[in-house]
Structure prediction request, 499 residues.
Amino acid sequence: MKHIGIIGAGLSGLATAKAFIREGFHVTVIEKATSVGGVWEKSRSYHGVATQTTRDEYAFSDFPMPSDYPLWPSGAQVQQYLADYAHHFGIMSTIRFNTAVTGLRYEQGNWEMDIYDAGEDYTDTLRFHFVAICTGTFHKPYIPAFKGMETFTGQVLHTSQVADATILKDKSVAVVGFAKSATDIATLAADAAKDCQLLFRKAQWKVPRYFGNLVNMRYLLFSRFSEAFFDAPYKTGFQKFLHTVGKPMVWAQWRGLELLLKKQFKLKACGMVPAHRIEDQISCSLGVAPEGFYEKVKCGAIRARQTEIDHFEGGKVFLENGAVLTPDLVICGTGFTQSMPFLEEPYKNKIVGEDGGFRLFRNILNPDVPQLGFVGFNSSLFTTLTSEIAANWLVRYVQGTLQLPGKEDIQKDIDYMAQWRKTSRPISSEFSGTCIAPFNFMHLDMLMKDMGLKTRATRWLPYEFFKPINPKDYRILLQASIRKAPQQIPVYQPAEIIQ
Prediction:
């Protein structure tokens, strides 16, 4: 029985563990936190955090969220859902909590994993036939190294550290950033703090939960039809038509959406009209506007300043526009960094390019690195599903039943995608190239075809084209038998490497 090591017990690690356990593999999950959840784990979640997508989209295919959850569940509810998932599928007993991976090296056909158990205060080395890294996009909170920050007499936090609204109570707060967490915290601080400043480099497009206060966002953002309006790296026939003869229709669609958002959020009155096109921004960083955010900016409860911090000096924060603030608390909504400090350098250098982007086929593996895969490095607008499909893909890779091209063609695809991200769609390089949005269906279709499975649950193409994503469809598709016989396995496949 092959022993599978999984690093991380967030949603991607849990989906991967479940997929391997179901196929009879021996699984060990290493998790540095004290409970499951990853970014949703309580110690990493800020107060009031909720999902960007709805309850029905942010669910695994065979384990729907409870029907009594709100349409946009809270962070605590998502963590409870993931804990229930782990218990239901027998994953909990495979997890070693409060344990960090300190080293990972390839030795004589196996991966040697050094770990440190903080609970028991001891080190150990484990051996695995195959390792899945599931640390995902949000690995390490990032706080910029502002000049003079060490002299600041106030407090500097990351948004993930704002676990309770009392941290903000009666304080003068400056929030840095314009991403989801930054605007969430600013909206919260407008009510809880003495005063709130929002410092941002440039305004970004945000979308409402309901467009025009009527249409749920899922109908405009989560369908094959909506995806077709993006200039994809691999195009369907309809996409080729849209981005040649149909370009005027594409232009009109995006300009109309921008006009709707400007009117609904009163962006001009807020001084927050983005200077870039919305289609150039939509990716994993697309934010859903917190309820009341733009209203609080407009009335001055959130004082928004389009500038950046120049330096700190004692209790003062000097801004690039010449203004000086004296906040008690500076909160950085400046995202996360991805890091694999435990992986030995020769293999890390094959996986991460000189530009910092991950060089992974299907965002899952590099053929020059034996017996190592990644799940959750294909984050999307519904990462639960894309991670689940990637986990099933990885199991079949280990089993040697995938219908993949040869190693040379795989490397060509990796090179093509790296170049495409750089020249055709720069926003796709964010998160080190690990975001597959907005091409969610394109990515899912590729993984399903590699597994020899269908990509649609019904034969009614118009319905499949316009309906929002439905994870339940993939439960049906994943359970289908693979009708095509697997091709001969190339020499780099784990089935050939592991004896």
Summary: The longest strand covers residues 99-107.
